[in-house]
Amino acid sequence: MNAENIRKAEAKDLSRIAEILVFAKRVKYRPIFNNDDYSFNELQVVKLVEDYGKPKILDNIWVYDDGIVKGMIHIEGKEIVELYVDYFFWSQGIGAKLIEFAKETHDARFLWVLEKNVDAIKFYEAHGFAANGKRQLEEGTPEYIVMLERVL
Description:
By secondary structure, the chain is α+β, with helices and mostly antiparallel strands.
């Protein structure tokens, strides 16, 4: 595995991580949730910097950095909690490198994804994950998330 350009996130990365999260979540989730109050009032860079700056979270984040932080992955135990790539760098293999890093260095085995986020599901399936039949409501929303497990 070539983990080149992937490193542990540091406090100096927080604003960049937050920018990536805000933009990607607005692009992918706004059409699913149709909640502009969340997308533009609650989902803010400053708030995410505060939330992600907590050691419990920051200690579990790795970034793809080739001079610019272009993506991030949040791993807890064997779960991929989040994987986001800056919209402007999509389709450049960054997400693939991050997920392979998680599989090879953390033995990542499962993740949850929004059922309506078909692009993400296709991406994860292409990297060896498959739906295992577990499905639950995403807390505080009418939308479902599904669990994908790594096919070993």
